[in-house]
Amino acid sequence: MSTTLQHLVDQPYQHGFVTDIESDVAPKGLSEETIRLISAKKHEPGWLLELRLDAYRKWLTMDEPQWPNVKYPKIDFQSISYYSAPKPKKTLGSMDEVDPELLRTFEKLGVPMNERAKLAGVAVDVIFDSVSVATTYKAKLAEVGIIFCSISEAVRDHPELVRKYLGSVVPVGDNYYAALNSAVFTDGSFCFIPKGVKCPMDLSTYFRINTENSGQFERTLIVAEEGASVSYLEGCTAPKFDTNQLHAAVVELVALDNADIKYSTVQNWYAGDENGLGGIYNFVTKRGLCKGVNSRISWTQVETGSAITWKYPSCILRGENSVGEFYSVALTNHHQQADTGTKMVHLGKNTRSTIVSKGISAGRSNNSYRGLVRIAPTAAGARNYSQCDSMLIGEQCGANTFPYIQVSNPSAKVEHEASTSKIGEDQLFYFAQRGIGAEEAVSMIINGFCKDVFQQLPMEFAVEATKLLGLKLEGSVG
Amino acid sequence: MIYQDSRTLLAVRDLRASVNGIEILKGMNLTVRSGEVHAIMGPNGSGKSTFAKVLAGHPSYAVSGGEVLFDGSDLLGLAAEARARAGVFLGFQYPIEIPGVANSQFLRLAYNTIQAERGEDELDPLEFDDLVREKMKSLEMNPEFLARSVNEGFSGGEKKRNEILQMALLEPKLAILDETDSGLDIDALRIVAGGVNQLSGKDNAIVLVTHYQRLLNYIVPDYVHVMEAGRILKTGGKELALELEARGYDWVAADSKANASLSA
């Protein structure tokens, strides 16, 4: 690869600072004792401890998945600390009580909080390591009956709702990492939109991993009742450490009749340095259940970070006429590896799904799309359209597409399109010869390539995503 | 056309350049004055396209000697985009496809970049649309090419027309057209040549790199140069092109050798 391209894809990580806050960290290692400790620290009801222990026992019998197209040394689950909370842990009533060091961290991250939050009209539930620090706008949302809080608070204040839906989309023994998460999750977000309510603002959670050697296992549960709708934004960053950190989250979405959930993610976890040292292992299970008729769940993700990404936001289309969507941009650089895609499981009649996946590989990275479209015998008239495009920047990266299509109903229609393109020296020279510099050229090509996905993002997020891709790929042109 | 009060636009002195460690240009000399049209001819592998790319600043080519002055200033020290902004235009032999980037968007960005460099007004999408449609009309191009991705799925002739469209928009001081005639049928050749002739004026110059004499029926050169093994062996008027058409290239090299041994 030429020096120009090398520089272009060579941009240092912007969020790699550590906040010096005293943390309450559990001893390393995983056992029933650890789980009982977490549950006790959080004053959880007995049913939740049972759920955790059930998950843990299932996890013990499971093997780490070997099928993804990624390589990494075996994870020692006994060397991870499963609980880390910033001190002091007293309940916070207002932003003034939040540790100022923490607030400065969010300022550096550019998280809209305080006045900025109000101006931006965004409610932010901030997850710092594993404990939700502040939930803004809670009162305003409560007026229309929306519950938006940390999952710990939800367990305390709305146990019947949490108990009804937690694990209903991703069962505790679903897969290796989901089982681990179910056993040890320490916090996350809960969102409940009651019947007929259209959430008046975008809800946003900002995740950040701060402590070295701590795994982050957050849990998100979003329920939209009949006719309700919500747009949920999730952003992720982590500081730089030379060791790898595990992030194994579970996100569950439930949409009842005529409900609409839009879930957007901009993920910028630390990806490791240019030699592949450090970075987050992002092993995440995200799944939505279109339980009711005419319901819709839409996943939009812009994945730019993590050393390894293993993530397949999925839709189970059970309700008749329900709609599942997956729009994804996954960018990998240096030694990053991504194996990401979606699953669309069509169970109900006339269910429809759309998959648009854009993979961008640079450096020595490896980027795989893996997707399943399954049409069950019951899904008469189901339709799917999939489009998987890959773009290669430079000579040393890789892109793969693994589409799985299983059709068991003859009236279904399934379409799959795929393409591979490349940004090469000659393309950049063509731009340069018309006076356009390499940074602008790459940005124009990438934005053109990702257009179909960016259009799906809420506006502020689209701007952030465009900038983020720019940061990741542009740099001093030499 | 040769003007009395012309100025030197391009001065190439003993230019040497290589690609992948192999020297291709071995002492190129060429002077182009404003208003002039030059044709560079020569057999395959003589270094014509390399010369065009080296002038435009292609990163794969390393200059190992000589100098190039453009409008009185050093050209070789400038990055490719700076050369373009200074007014050097290369019409590509094989224009590259850029999927996902609309032609209109690309053309406008290029146009506004050059306008900004010249201290002139940039155009918004609507104003630019008027301008580009007018230029396309004169090149008999279908406006639907604006909405398509740059060169993607264009036929060979359409790509070449798109190159000339860019030249017409950017109005460069020096246009180097690398085999713009190859792959064109007679009608397309006439249209493309018309576009080139329209641009050609007192203040700018055109260098045509071509294999064949037929383009020169439409664009009449002031000088014809024959390249062989990385340098210019012979320079003449437009009649030289006809002679080359009739006799081929071998005699030029033979003559040159004979001259060299005479003078030795």
What do you see in this structure?
The complex is a heterodimer of chains A (478) and B (264). Chain A is an alpha/beta fold and 478 residues long. Chain A is 25% helix and 35% strand. Chain A contains twelve helices and 23 strands. Chain A has helices at residues 3-8, 32-41, 46-60, 100-109, 114-120, 138-143, 151-157, 159-165, 176-184, 425-433, 438-454, 459-473, and strands at residues 23-25, 84-86, 123-128, 131-135, 147-150, 187-193, 203-208, 218-224, 229-237, 244-247, 250-255, 260-268, 279-290, 296-303, 308-311, 314-317, 323-332, 337-346, 352-361, 366-375, 383-393, 398-407, 413-423. In chain A, the strands form three sheets. In chain A, strands 5, 6, 8, 10, 11, 13, 15, 16, 18, 20 and 22 form an eleven-stranded mixed sheet that branches. In chain A, a hairpin with a 2-residue loop joins strand 3 and strand 4. In chain A, helix 2 runs antiparallel to helix 3 (46-60) and helix 7 packs across helix 8 (159-165). Chain B is α/β, with parallel strands linked by helices and 264 residues long. Chain B has a domain at 8-95 and 172-263: Rossmann fold (3-Layer(aba) Sandwich), CATH 3.40.50. In chain B, 37% of the residues lie in helices and 28% in strands. Chain B has eight helices and twelve strands. Chain B has helices at residues 48-56, 80-86, 103-117, 125-138, 156-170, 186-199, 238-247, 250-263, and strands spanning 8-19, 22-33, 37-41, 61-70, 73-74, 88-91, 98-102, 149-150, 174-178, 205-209, 223-228, 231-236. In chain B, strands 6-9-10-3-11-12 form a six-stranded mixed sheet, with helices on both faces. In chain B, helix 3 packs across helix 4. Chain B starts with 7 loop residues before the first strand and ends with a helix. At the A-B interface, helix 10 and helix 11 of A face helix 2, strand 7 and helix 3 of B.
Write a concise synopsis of the structure shown:
Chain A is α/β, with parallel strands linked by helices. Chain A has twelve helices and 23 strands.
